[in-house]
Amino acid sequence: MPSQTIQWFPGHMAKTRRLITENLKSVDAVIEILDARIPYSSRNPEISRICADKPTIILLNKSSLADKSITEYWAKKYTNQNTVCIETDCISGQGISSIAPALKELCHDKVARYEEKGMMGRAIKVMVVGIPNVGKSSLINKLCGTKKAKVENRPGVTLDKQWVTTNIGIQLLDMPGVLWPKFEDAAVGENLAITGAIKDDVLDIEAIASALCGRLRQMYPDLLATRYKLGEVPSIDEVNNYDLLRLIGKKRGHLISGGEIDTERTANMLIDEYRAAKIGRISLDAPTR
């Protein structure tokens, strides 16, 4: 496990927090995008607090990478009178067609008032929020049917707000990804690091990979054993998380001069294979939270 507390709050994220607060009054609803692999850890408590009074659609994005049964649990947990939760995947397009009808239903009363004032066909204005690298730009491009928002598989690409018009009766306000000042729960910070919400170059990659070893050992031992030919995964009493990472490196032949295990190479490989779902469909936030 990482010995340090993960904290990540660069200046542009403080700016984003202000932008969300200042622009909330100009939108009818909010789309909050979460990472389906970490539905609890990827939910920014500050966004939830700031946007609490707005009709909200929560998207559990990247759902094709996540454990289906756990995703279904979180979708039910986050659904209430003012909030609809939809499983989506911006690569395959899963769930995207459900967003516009859900928004129109959530904003039914407001749309009716606009029509009473003669504002027929007025677009529903929606703020799109979420942590970095969760798929906001990919979602916007799917809803637009064209490439309007910059997309890269790394956090911190969108650095300022931008309005985007669609042809499905929705106008989107794309906000930069924002984390929060301190992760009180160390596991939350680790999960965000494992899934790529925090830039890899500010992290101890071996510590993060060791944390992932611990999650996989506890929650998905069979998938871990199968992928890395471990036979039976040793218990934490037998082998700590870092030594489990070394064992994986040994099995993969990641050796350097003198027969030492290249743990940095192994850590990068493990993180990459997790993110690509090569180990399996894995969620790191268990339903017990």
Would you write up a description of this structure?
This protein is an alpha/beta fold. Helices cover 39% and strands 12% of the residues. It has eleven helices and six strands. It has helices at 11-23, 45-50, 68-78, 99-106, 108-116, 136-144, 186-195, 205-219, 221-228, 241-251, 263-275; strands at residues 29-35, 56-61, 83-87, 124-130, 162-165, 170-174. Strands 3-2-1-4-6-5 form a six-stranded mixed β-sheet, sandwiched between helices. Helix 8 packs across helix 10. 42% of the residues are buried. Mean pLDDT is 87; it is low at 151-158.
Summed up, what is this model?
The chain has eleven helices and six strands. The protein has 289 residues and is an alpha/beta fold.
> Which quaternary structure do these chains form?
single chain
Instruction: List low-confidence stretches.
Output: 151-158
Question: What percent of residues adopt helix (DSSP H or I)?
Answer: 25-40%
How many strands, what sense, and barrel or not for the largest sheet?
6 strands, mixed
Q: Tell me the β content.
A: 5-15%
SSE topology string: HEHEHEHHEHEEHHHHH
Q: What is the radius of gyration computed over CA atoms, rounded to a whole number of angstroms?
A: 21 Å
Count of DSSP strands:
6
The chain-level mean pLDDT equals: 87
What separation lies between the terminal Cα atoms? Answer: 20 Å
| Order of strands in the sheet with most strands | 3-2-1-4-6-5
- Shape summary: elongated
Total of DSSP H or I helical runs spanning 4+ residues: 11
Q: Provide the structure class.
A: alpha/beta
